[in-house]
Automatic annotation (TrEMBL):
Keywords: DNA-binding. It comes from Jejudonia soesokkakensis. InterPro entries: Cro/C1-type_HTH, Lambda_DNA-bd_dom_sf. This is Helix-turn-helix transcriptional regulator. Residues 5-59 form the HTH cro/C1-type domain.
C-alpha cells in the first residue's frame, strides 16, 4: 500500500507529533505509516480522512504488490 500522508501533513503544516496527537497515536506510528512499514486500521484511516478533509482513497492507494 502506498500513501501520501507526509504530503497531506505538510499541506496542513503539521508535524508528525501534532498529527499523532490529533488522532490519538504516537509519533512513531505516524512515522511508520509514512514509511509504509505499518498499515493503519480502518478507524485510524477514517480519523486521518477527517483531519485531511479528504476521502481515504485520496491519500492511500494499492501498490502493485497488493
Amino acid at each position: 500500500m502506498k500513501n501520501s500522508i507526509k504530503v497531506e501533513r505538510a499541506i496542513l503544516n503539521l508535524t508528525q507529533e501534532e498529527l499523532a496527537k490529533k488522532i490519538g497515536v504516537s509519533r512513531q506510528t505516524i512515522n511508520s505509516i509514512e514509511a509504509n512499514r505499518y498499515v493503519p486500521s480502518t478507524v485510524l484511516a477514517l480519523k486521518l480522512s477527517a483531519i485531511f478533509n479528504k476521502a481515504v482513497n485520496d491519500f492511500f492507494s494499492l501498490s502493485d504488490d497488493d
